[in-house]
TrEMBL record:
Keyword GTP-binding listed: no
A GO cellular component annotation in the UniProt record: Cul2-RING ubiquitin ligase complex
TPR repeats: 263-296
A Pfam family of this chain: TPR_12
GO molecular function: ubiquitin-like ligase-substrate adaptor activity
InterPro entries according to UniProt: APPBP2, TPR-like_helical_dom_sf, TPR_rpt
Coiled coil: none
PROSITE patterns according to UniProt: TPR
Originating organism: Aphis gossypii
A Gene Ontology BP annotation from the UniProt entry: intracellular protein transport
Protein name listed in UniProt: Amyloid protein-binding protein 2
Keywords for this protein: TPR repeat
Keyword Flavoprotein: no
Record-annotated membrane-spanning stretches: none
Length: 417
């Protein structure tokens, strides 16, 4: 495709618009998690558009730019593009409408609005099944995206049944229509299944014992149930490990060691080995993930903060390295606050970790400080969500579908356009 694009670009006075070809290349790099390259092509796609280009093409190209902005944490830019798209009041083809909805769902998940994201994915899933049928890759991809959004949102309830049902359907469809085992879409679906399996495995011992073991059951029965639950947990974690190792193998083959996709696999394995009580291996995986992410993204990126928090958790709850954990939590906290502000959910995990660290270090003043931070976070969360949902962009004008306006937004331009 790149060769064909290169040939077309060299045609003098060409009239053929290849904006969607640029989008296709951007989507390829997006799947490989090479987001800067994806952004470069998404940006080119917008600038390839002309005022006389079809509205459908403009909608698809700009909507894709929203997705790439979101994963790069250009959330303000993504929000402005969404607001501007919402000024378009003509009837939109259903397939294009669903495409826009999916890209906005991606923004919502990155902007810490997981429930909004779930609602968007649910509507998109219903529409995709109506448009393409059940056994179709378009439908399978939305099942996978919906499953991941459910996984993120359901952390607060630890009920991952809906997430598991959705990911199993996505994988089933992909296998049924013949995707090879090393296809990146199928491997990514397996990675998400592994994340859900891990959480369900950890929940088995907590909720399983509460459900089955109580004062009315004889000790012999209780021991038997406990052994059964432990075997179930071990089997689920082993399956998750196999899926993560497969993802790492495919990633190393596709993009090599120094890639965000590979770092993601190391990060996931680090968490899994912590759950399997393989603490030395867990630490090694987390350190690898941090090294790769910092080399690609720099030291102050939220993806780095995510891995810092995972390593800090290992140091806090298993290895008892409290001073090292404190440094990691504080660094993660600073990155999140700088990038997202004071209401990002990831901060809550840092606060919880710091409370535990300072409790163990017997630093009562700091322990109380972060306990208070957690209380304030919960207290102000709903007000923040309301503000996000009701915010308007005064720069958006009704039916203003000018390409210059969108280009200004992408360039973060402050001119009067």
């Amino acid at each position: 495709m790149l060769h064909t694009i290169g040939v077309i670009e060299k045609i003098e006075r060409r009239k053929l618009c290849i904006a969607y070809a640029y989008v296709a290349v951007s989507q390829y790099y997006y799947v490989l998690m090479e987001f800067n390259e994806a952004w470069s092509w998404a940006f080119k796609a917008v600038y390839e558009l002309q005022d006389k280009s079809a509205d459908i093409l403009k909608l698809l190209v700009i909507s894709h730019a929203i997705r790439v902005c979101s994963v790069l944490n250009k959330l303000s830019t993504a929000r402005k593009l969404i607001n501007q798209l919402h000024t378009y009041e003509k009837e939109i083809d259903q397939n294009v409408d669903v495409d826009i909805l999916l890209n906005i769902a991606c923004y919502s998940l990155k902007a810490d609005l997981a429930k909004d994201s779930i609602n968007s994915y649910y509507i998109a899933l219903d529409s995709r099944r109506n448009l393409f049928g059940y056994y179709n890759l378009h439908t399978a991809i939305v099942f996978v995206d919906y499953a991941y959004a459910r996984y993120v949102c359901d952390y607060s309830t630890t009920d991952f049944n809906e997430a598991m049902r959705s990911i199993l359907q996505g994988i089933f469809i992909m296998e049924k229509i013949g995707l090879p085992n090393d296809n990146m879409l199928l491997v990514n679906a397996g990675r998400i299944k592994a994340l859900i399996l891990e959480e369900k495995a950890l929940d088995i011992m907590d909720r399983g014992i509460d459900i089955y073991i109580h004062d009315g059951i004889r000790d012999l029965q209780a021991d038997g149930i406990k052994r059964l639950l432990e075997r179930m947990k071990r089997n689920m974690l082993n399956e998750a490990e196999a899926l993560h190792l497969k993802a790492l193998e495919v990633s190393l083959k596709a993009v090599g060691m120094k890639a965000l996709l590979t770092a993601k696999s190391y990060c996931n394995l680090g968490r899994l080995y912590q759950s399997q009580e393989k603490y030395t291996q867990s630490e090694q995986m987390h350190l690898k993930a941090i090294e790769i992410k910092e080399s690609i993204l720099g030291k102050d990126n939220p993806e780095v903060a995510l891995s810092l928090g995972h390593l800090a958790s290992l140091y806090t709850y298993q290895l008892k390295k409290y001073q090292e954990a404190e440094v990691l939590y504080l660094r993660s906290k600073t990155i999140y606050e700088t990038t997202y502000g004071q209401q990002y959910t990831g901060l809550l995990y840092d606060f919880q970790g710091l409370v535990e660290v300072y409790r163990e270090l017997n630093d009562i003043e700091k322990c109380n400080q972060y306990t208070e931070n957690m209380r304030r976070f919960h207290e102000t969360r709903e007000a923040w969500l309301h503000e996000v949902h009701t915010a308007t962009d005064e720069n958006c004008t009704k039916d203003d579908f000018s390409l210059e306006k969108f280009k200004c937004i992408l360039n973060e331009c402050a001119c009067d356009k």
